[in-house]
Write a structure and sequence with these properties.
Elements lengths: L3 H6 L4 H16 L5 E6 L7 E10 L2 E9 L5 E5 L1
Antiparallel strand pairs: 1-2, 2-3, 3-4
């Protein structure tokens, strides 16, 4: 089985992890159609996020965020 460590130590997150892996290539193939949005995180006002949204079809929108914290460090926010 792939992802043995996730299955062993974080079994409840295995399906979500596999879904993200499956969706990332779909997202990247459609990145040229992405809409960029920016929002201030409501729970921690020191973190600003930029989100790339791609509508795949009528019922499916994929989203990847790029966060920047108060120390100017960037990180991804796969949703």
């Amino acid at each position: 089985m792939k992802f043995k460590k996730i299955d062993k130590f974080n079994k409840k997150y295995l399906k979500a992890f596999i879904d993200r892996i499956d969706n990332i290539s779909l997202f990247l193939r459609n990145l040229k159609n992405a809409v960029i949005t920016k929002k201030l995180n409501n729970t921690n006002k020191s973190i600003n996020s930029i989100y790339f949204l791609v509508q795949i079809n009528k019922n499916k929108v994929l989203e990847i965020g790029l966060g920047k914290d108060k120390t100017d460090q960037y990180y991804d926010e796969m949703v």
